[in-house]
Amino acid sequence: MVLYIIIQMFNKKLNSFQEIFFNTFIFISYFLIILSFFGLSNYAPKFLEGLDYYVRIYICLFLIWRFNPFRKIDTFTNLDRKIAFSAGLFIITTTALNKYIIDTKERVQKIFNSNPQKQP
């Protein structure tokens, strides 16, 4: 019984830490997406790619751990809801929106970087 109480306390602390950690990553991701979309930073797309990769890994591991068939789920927390929503959002953005943004940015850069050759 004491061990169960200790585990519950640890889970609450871990849940609180994970929620802060996850919210921070989401905020940084949105900030980098805005910077990338408007072309305000040349480094933002590189950071965004790396950050997206690690957030996707975190979400995958979280979902595997939290919802595996060998574990009993006591409650569906606010963090669970955020993770599930973000998982769907990241799947959509990484398959469609990010590709669109990168392709559009490359086309715009080609237009502005192309130097028409002067004819004699």
Please tell me about this protein's structure.
This protein is mainly alpha-helical and 120 residues long. The protein has a domain at 21-102. Helix content is 79%, strand content 0%. It contains three helices and no strands. The chain has helices at residues 2-37, 44-66, 78-113. It is elongated and about 70 Å long. The mean pLDDT is 76.
Pattern of helices and strands? HHH
Arithmetic mean pLDDT: 76
Strand content: under 5%
Helices, by number, come to 3
Query: Percentage of helical residues?
Result: over 70%
- The tally of strands reads 0
Entry keywords:
single chain, 120 residues, mainly alpha, 79% helix
Brief synopsis:
By secondary structure, this protein is mainly α. The protein is built from three helices and no strands.
Topology, please?
Layout: H1 2-37, H2 44-66, H3 78-113
